[in-house]
Amino acid sequence: MRIASLLASSTEIVAALGLTDDLVAVSHCCDWPPQVQDLPSLTSALFEAQTAREIDDAVREKLKGQDAIYALDAQALAALKPDLVISQALCDVCAVSGAEVSTVLSQLSPQPTLVNLEPYSLGDILETITMIGDAAGVSDRATTLRTSLQARIDAVAERTNALPGPRPRTVLLDWTSPPFIGGHWMHELITLAGGEDAGNTADRPSWTTSWAEVLTLNPERLVIAPCGFPASRTVEDMAGDPDTITALRQLEAQGCQLTVFDGNRLFSRSSPRIVDSLEALAHWLWPDVHPASDIEPEMGPVHPLSALAS
Fold it and tell me: Which of 112, 136, 147, 281 has a C-alpha 20 to 30 A away from that of 213?
């Protein structure tokens, strides 16, 4: 089967199902497993920006003018003749829109099968594994993968349920300039890991806030994992934003514990790594209860102010 994956999460799911060799093309954001980086890229960003603030400004400007944020190389897609195309219908800021992909595929003959992913919760993420497995003809593999991931989630939940006393008030930011409080599945991650969701994010998408508002939430734990940014890039980016550094110092003075995780490979990607994210968060919140996860050291956690000082 010839598979074109237009978002990083689905590429990771395809790989986890043992179908990496079936991939014929990916998106410009796909970076795992490493061998997919040698495949043709069918998408590209239509803006040039580096810092979190510049990216936010550029995206807002394009959305205001109803301009596309990403381009899809329809000609290259047609030439590759994929049997299966995997796209998304969740967030036009994250990847090429599902509507655009549907339009392009409707003009192809024969038309490939299109799977549009729109996960909103942990259960939805597991369901996308089934959707891709069924479409690719490997339903048994998908069932096995889902079962193993669910077992890991259940193990975290069981340990958390046995915790004594109150849970630490926790806020998870998936952008910093301006700060965004992470929504979608973030409520589940926080509560399963043993935190109290101070941002009250259940059944909400991510939303823009301010550092003043974050301070009023009085978090005891603050997790920073900007979507698409490795931990080192986040620390470097925050170093150039005085408002962010001032807010972090205020939070720490209030007794809040701070950390930065890799927001490129953790938390934001609706792939099997979401369970890695849960385990990593649980260990950071309750290191004596939840064992350390198997994530690479460079993925965090990193104390932002300590990293800046070094």
Answer: 281
